Amino acid sequence: MTIDSDKIITDRLARLESDFSSLRDGYLIVNKRYSETLQAMKGLTENALECALRSAAAAEKAALACQSATAAAVASASAQIVEATSAAAEAASQAALAASEAAAAASAAAAAAASAAAAQAEETAVQASAEAAHATLRATSAAAEAAKMASRAADVAKSLTK
After folding, report:
1. How many Å apart are CA 78 and CA 92, to the nearest integer?
2. What is the distance of C-alpha 150 from the center of its chain?
3. Burial letters for 55-65: b for 16+ Cβ neighbours within 10 Å, e otherwise?
4. Which of 41, 64, 132, 142 is such that its CA lies 20 to 30 A from the CA of 57?
């Protein structure tokens, strides 16, 4: 080989080594960003699950409040206290509305958890998504029960004003 050939080969090897080093550095940067993004997605999934669970608990508590307001409406109706009955019926209606809002929040959180699960494709994210969906079911059931009780309280209040 000639000296020119050796120089050309050496230059090309140096460029390849430089390119390889740049690729390795780029891979490390991308890998680090991916890991950070994955950690952020895990955090979002956990937050979405907590939101769904708290929304379900809020809906269940609103349903209990609605039940108490309905009981108060029925009890005051027997005592012919029209204003108290109307107020209790209104409270039952507001509690039912709160339960519905909590159910909607649980549903949104479940959707966020499902999106995160799809992005992560990890078992923990899928489990969190399933738990969030179950929390949505709890919240929706509580909202439906609250709506029934609010309707009952309203019927009692209407029967008194007649």
Report:
1. 18
2. 26
3. bbbbbbbbbbb
4. 41
